[in-house]
Design brief:
alpha+beta, OB fold (Dihydrolipoamide Acetyltransferase, E2P), three-stranded antiparallel β-sheet, 4 helices, elongated, RecO, DNA recombination, DNA damage, NA-bd_OB-fold
């Protein structure tokens, strides 16, 4: 069985059997990986708290038929502040769900790994405005995954995006990959405000008119 070493971010951890856990990690070198950490729930486990959800780890594993097996792990960054704050944790859950939906294959893409790491870093460093981090992440990951955004009309009411309110705000709904005018934003799932969108900005995650 091939042994490999990589960096990964733990997306999910599920109890398995009496003492094991099954992990989903987004790795720098192998994309999304499912692996088992044997004995991790025992009091004297060699893993300790090194494979907690959202942790960025340097790990050693060997390939299996259905699940790889993690044999060693070292924490590079725990993102403890994200896990301990309910608002940040909820936003991180949305980021993880988007990652699993759009980057769930086993093809490695270091841009996705870096984007995920930077999103968690931004989330940990912000006291508020967590929704904008998730929106920016979803927008950028959609672009990396080859999905075009609908920026010509409101996803909810089909009105032209030129129908702005006096403050010039539109709303971006990451799960829908589209924008909405203010009057229809309530019908757009998890919509967050952005200024005057037509072309996406990869730096801020906002939509800008691009004049």
């Amino acid at each position: 069985m091939a042994v490999y070493k990589s960096k990964g971010i733990v997306l999910r951890s599920i109890r398995y059997g009496e003492a094991d856990r099954i992990l989903d990690l987004y790795t720098r070198d192998a994309g999304l990986v499912s692996a088992i950490a044997k004995g991790i729930r025992r009091t004297k486990s060699r893993f300790g708290g090194r494979l907690e959800p959202l942790s960025c780890v340097d790990f050693l594993a060997y390939e299996g038929r259905t699940l790889d097996t993690v044999t060693q792990a070292e924490v590079l960054r725990s993102f403890h502040a994200v896990r301990e704050d309910l608002a940040r944790l909820e936003t991180a859950g949305g980021i993880v769900a988007t990652t699993r939906a759009l980057a769930g294959g086993d093809e490695a893409d270091r841009r996705v790994f870096n984007l995920l790491y930077n999103a968690l870093d931004a989330l940990e460093g912000r006291a508020e405005g967590h929704g904008s981090v998730e929106s920016a992440f979803a927008l950028k990951l959609s672009m990396l995954s080859g999905y075009a955004l609908r920026l010509d009309a409101c996803v909810s009411c089909e009105r032209s995006l030129d129908a702005l309110d006096e403050e010039g705000f539109l709303y971006y709904a990451p799960p829908l990959g589209a924008c909405s005018v203010p009057s229809a934003a309530g019908r757009a799932t998890r919509a967050t405000p952005s200024r005057s969108p037509t072309a996406p900005s990869t730096r801020s995650g906002r939509c800008s008119r691009g004049r």
